[in-house]
Amino acid sequence: MDLRRVKNEDKLDLCRKYYLGGFALLPFLWFVNSIWFFMEAFRKPHFEQQAQIRSYVIRSMIGSVIWIAVIVTWVTIFQLNRASWGATADYLSFIIPRGEP
Hints:
With 101 residues, this protein is mainly alpha-helical. Helix 1 packs antiparallel against helix 2, helix 1 (8-22) runs parallel beside helix 4 and helix 2 (27-36) crosses helix 4 (50-81). It has one domain (3-92). The protein has helices at residues 8-22, 27-36, 38-43, 50-81, 87-92. The longest helix is centred in the middle third of the chain and has 32 residues, at 50-81.
């Protein structure tokens, strides 16, 4: 979609939908929202809906950073403790590595 052809009201509506969609455990939408609407929020000449778009973009960036931190923390903890967690870690694993820990 070319944002240059979309009306400012529709941009705000789309940005809001992506922001709210991130709360449905789809943090990728927050990341896309922050990248896609960054120019509209911070670089374009002022227009009426820009303040609201900027608010959604900033919140999307914060949500993306928090989700990335949570995922990286979980993966690190799981990889470091997988062997010591025994069968519980095996139930959480999609692929169980062969061999001894």
